[in-house]
Every structure is written in structure tokens, then in C-alpha cells.
Amino acid sequence: MRAWSLALHIRRCFCNRSQKDLQSSFHNPRPWLFIGLGNPGQKYQGTRHNVGFDMIDAFAESQGISFSTVHCKAFFGQGMVGNTPIFLAKPQTYMNLSGESAFDDMDLPCGVLRLHQRGGHGCHNGLRSVIDHFHGNKEFGRLRIGIGRPPGQMDPKAFLLQKFNATARERIDVALQEGVEVLRLLTSKGFTESATRFNTNQKFKHHRHATMSEF
Question: What is the pTM of this model?
């Protein structure tokens, strides 16, 4: 996503608010933008590749936010968490081009999450595209969503495009609700406190799930 384009759109949203709202906004927290990475189209719905979209959808549903507009090649929605303005985006470019417009991670066991304030792309093409479009800037937060590794000699691409089996789906559904809670926490507590508390709990979950098979 082109950061300046989305920032301009957000500024327009605030410019359309009433004078009373604008005056009160000076005392309110700054807005948050949450972006889920995935591929558009029914073919990819419910697959490991699209858990980033699933996370944003779960958060949107929890807050009553609808994706009512299209901007910067993304479905776009806005709402509030308490007094904090929230903007949600689901890029409609394909994963490798997400930078034109939350993400899956095979290095984490299925259903395990990690919240990081910054970092590299970790060979994730969607993140690599985002970093490229930010001109190499890696200073943005990310919520990693574990999907596990393919069994045996299975092609990773085929694994990504498979739907979850019943056991894995159950783990992912739990993880989505955990993700919703930490995104809410972010808006009030910020990254440092949220990540410390959340990642500590997820480390125990990591050890537990790493010894369990989903297949």
C-alpha cells in the first residue's frame, strides 16, 4: 500500500467530521490502521494463505465495522474502539503485491501468534512487498499468525492453498479471538505493554502446540 495515499484518505475522513468532533479529537488517541494480508477471490477463502484476511474480518465483526469503501486497491472500513479511531484494510492485490495497497507464518505452530513492533520480512513475500513500498522502512508493527509447516515433502505452495482440517481450524478460530483481543489492547496500551503481556502467554502456547500434530 502506498502509505501517503492511505494517509491522505484518513485525513479526508477526519476533515468530514463536525467541528465539535474535531475539537474533541485533539484529546483522543491517534488512529490505528490494521491491514490483513491475503489473496482476493473465493478460491482462497478459508485457506492457510488468507488467515490475515480472517483476522481482520474477525476484528471488524467484533467492532461492528463494515468494509464500505475501496481505496488504494483495498477494501476499507472505519470505526471506533472506545475513543480510538480504527481503520481496517484488506488489499485486493495478490499477496506478493500487497505493498501496492495481520499475515500467515509457517515458522510458528498452527494457531500460535506473535506481536512485533518491527522486523524484517522473514521471506514472506507479502511483507517484503510492504517494506519495498515503504522504501525499506521496517518500522511498522505486525501480528504473525502461525499456520504450521507442511507435512513430509509436501510443496509449501500447495500447503498454503489448502483449507484447514478440523483440528487446525479449531486452533485458528481460537487464535483469531486472541488476535482480536490483542488488537483491542493495542489501541489502549500501545505496543510495549501489549506485546510483553501477549507474547509471554503465546510462548507457553507455542511449546504446547509444537508437540502436538494437527494432521
Answer: 0.77
- pLDDT > 60? residue 10: no
Catalytic residues: 49
Residue 39 CA to its chain's centroid (Å): 13
Quick one: which H or E segment has residue 146?
strand 142-146
What residues pair up with 69 in beta bridges, in sequence order? Answer: 76
- Residue 93's contacts (CB-CB under 8 Å, 6 or more residues apart) are 40, 73, 100, 101
What is the Cα–Cα distance from 177 to 51, expressed in whole angstroms? 12
**Per-residue pLDDT reduced to its tens digit, 68-77:** 888 778 899 9
The backbone torsions φ and ψ at residue 24, rounded to the nearest 5 degrees and listed phi first, read: -70, -25
What is d(CA 122, CA 138) in angstroms, rounded to the nearest whole number? 12
For residue 85, the one-letter residue type is P
